[in-house]
Design brief:
Length: 371
């Protein structure tokens, strides 16, 4: 249940489903999920414009932020819905004749848990906490720079991370220069040429603070890292174009299977988890390629979906390629490889091709200067 504990309060509102044919179950339903800790859950159900149902879930004891519920159906007294971002499902049925109680089961992972819901009244409804205030965004026309940046060789051998903080700082652990270039310029390592071997092997810890308050947008953060690389690593390059083996992302024949997020069109994307369940929040396809696919695949990836700047939420589960340990028995329930997973779960097709791509010809680079 750690995924539920970690991510239930992260995402935003959405979700549609089928029309409840035998009873109107619109309203606020609430119950306690007895997991590692007791979690008070609120499920708000309403009719949508397409004569179906939509719902939003809240975890009261985890901050109460809204979590989108996917398809929801109610027929013959039985209710079913999914929460794609959590890889969770709920199945229940009306437990009394006046339609004010539902007995059901929440499933997320191998151990289903009972979750009974009661229709709340104005007097009994649990108060949903106000979500914490978002960090104030930096002005869109601002051109921030890192005022202070600490770079030192990393002693970390297994853990790698890079993330912006709500205050606007950037923190990286065990990051190679190759990865910092990838982050700054949205390129695959194969798009870097004439680079010394150490940019792939030497690892650094980085903490950098911008010269003004507010949370920078992702493009602003990339610009700051670009200047940092030029100042501290003396990175110089010139661009070129060449045809390379690549992967193209297109919309599959059956259409998209991902949820559009229209809550924060100027916000930064969010990513969590790994191949067993990569949660993507408020991301464009181009950002998903830059952050995830260019890490997961051995060739550059080009976006041919035509989806532009539209933002989406989805969950992707795949089994990475690579050798298995001797004696390992294949798991029949393991998710498919990333090619099949993207098509089945997202409605996106990933196929090999050749494409003209930008390459960076490295003219000069040095190990970082002292702090």
């Amino acid at each position: 249940m750690k995924n539920l504990l970690t991510f239930l309060a992260v995402l935003l509102i959405g979700g549609t489903g089928l029309f409840a044919q035998d009873r109107d179950i619109s309203g606020s339903w609430q119950g306690t999920l007895h997991a590692e800790n007791n979690l008070r859950i609120v499920l708000k159900i309403a009719k949508d414009d397409a004569a179906g149902l939509k719902a939003t879930m809240y975890s009261i004891d985890q901050g109460g932020r809204p979590t989108p519920v996917g398809p929801i159906s109610f027929k013959g007294g039985a209710i079913k819905f999914s929460v794609p971002s959590l890889n969770g499902t709920y199945e229940g049925k009306l437990a009394n004749t006046d339609g004010t109680a539902i007995t059901g089961v929440w499933t997320q992972g191998p151990n289903p848990l009972p979750l009974d819901l009661t229709l709340a009244t104005k007097e009994t409804a649990w108060e949903i906490p106000e979500p914490p205030q978002q960090a104030r965004a930096m002005a869109a026309d601002a051109k921030p720079e890192f005022e202070v940046a600490t770079i030192k060789p990393s002693e970390e051998t297994t853990r790698f991370s890079i993330h912006p903080t709500p205050s606007g700082s950037l923190i990286a652990t065990a990051a190679t220069l190759s990865y910092l270039i990838k982050f700054a310029y949205e390129v695959h390592p194969r798009q870097l040429t004439k680079a010394p071997a150490w940019i792939e092997t030497e690892k650094y810890d980085l903490t950098a603070k911008p010269d003004r308050p507010g949370q920078p947008s992702l493009p602003q953060m990339r610009k700051m890292v670009q200047k940092l690389l030029a100042d501290r690593f003396q990175l110089r390059f010139h661009p070129a174009k060449t045809e390379l083996p690549a992967y193209a992302v297109t919309i599959a024949k059956g259409g998209l299977k991902i949820t559009k997020n229209e809550t924060n069109p100027n916000g930064n994307p969010g990513y969590g988890g790994g191949p067993n369940g990569m949660r993507v929040v408020n991301s464009t396809i181009a950002e998903f390629i830059g952050f995830i696919l260019n890490d997961a695949l051995d060739k550059p990836v080009v976006d041919q979906t035509g989806l532009g700047g539209a933002r989406y939420d989805f969950l992707l589960k795949w089994t990475p390629d690579g050798p298995q340990a001797p004696g390992t028995v294949p798991n029949p329930d393991a998710p498919p490889d990333i090619f099949a997973a993207m098509q089945q779960q997202l409605g996106l097709k990933l196929e090999s091709t050749k494409a003209m791509v930008d390459v960076f010809v490295i003219d000069k680079v040095e190990k970082p200067s002292e702090n």
